[in-house]
Amino acid sequence: MHDWFKDYLHQRFQRVVVDGAVSDWVHVTSGVPQGSILGPMLFVIFINDLPDVVPDCISTGLYADDTKLYRNVSTIGDCKKLQDALTELSSWSYQKNFNASKCKVLSITRKVNPLHFQYHMDSTKLLRVNEEKDLGVIITENLSWESHLTCICAKANKLLSLLKRTCISIIDSSVRKTLYLTLVRSKLSYATEVWSPASSLLKQKAEKIQRRATRWILRVKAGELSYKDRLQQLDTLPLAYDREFYIAIVFQTIPQDEIKSKVSNIPLKVSVKSGENQRSYSNNNVDIANTFNEYFASIFTHDNNSDHNLGEHLDPEIVLEDITLTNDEVITVLTNLNNNKAHGSDGIPARLLTETSSQIAPLLCALFNKSLRCGVFPDD
């Protein structure tokens, strides 16, 4: 096996060809052929012992030739431990030579005045940055995805404009859809399990690109066909749904016990009154429950507990028996629900009600009308 690998790597030469003109042959003294199958495996073998030289208190992330060292930093002592790990890596790489100019420091924190430490590799000081692209995703110091989304939206817009200019003669919708999915949407959907935005403004920023793209694919003008109808014709999900779909797949692959253990480790504390004009933080479940209950009560109840005679404010000419709902009215209400809002106490997502409105409307209509006639509110 050793001789086989030696023969593969020994006495390799390379040259460059430009429009038929060729350069002289040059002897390749290091590295592996680009695009080869054995290349990545040989590189992994080459750096296989790297994690062994890193202290146990430091976490290591490896992907091909991309290496990350990280740990929770609270004190100067933590910083020195991270620096010790960098020193060990420098000693390990005395023949492999890390490019210190490409090594950077990123602190992810919400503190106003975070702890900064001057890290270095050998005699080279490492550059501290506020954001860095990691495997195609821009990570910022506060884990905001605005920079990343702005970057990929700019790329997607340029590619979509390029398609519009160069593919005028293509009128087949299926071909246009394939071009969009391959060149544009792939930019907007890459690694969304990691960076899916929470802000509605950021969601709309990405969705606008697909809105324009669907009009181009179907060759319709603004206002001729709704976005929902365009998506149905193209059998395509909105980008927001697409991101949720892939996030659900990721969670499905994670063992439930592991998810529960991670969630249970998240500390939950509430502010409770510990004395006159004094408050302290508590993680007691009873205190947490009472605090939430007080908050909800302050929203949904009134201080004035006096009885109200509702009959005094009702028009005597209007009685409940006169009110009758129709299927169309129920469907209109269901289809106008905001799918971006959380579900109510019944636990039913608004999206489910919207998409099944025509099927459930007759049953809901009959239930509402009977409730109005009987004067009894339905139980849960």
Automatic annotation (TrEMBL):
An example of a Pfam family matching this protein is RVT_1
- The protein here is known as Uncharacterized protein
Species of origin reads: Paramuricea clavata (Red gorgonian)
Q: Which branch of life, at top level?
A: Eukaryota
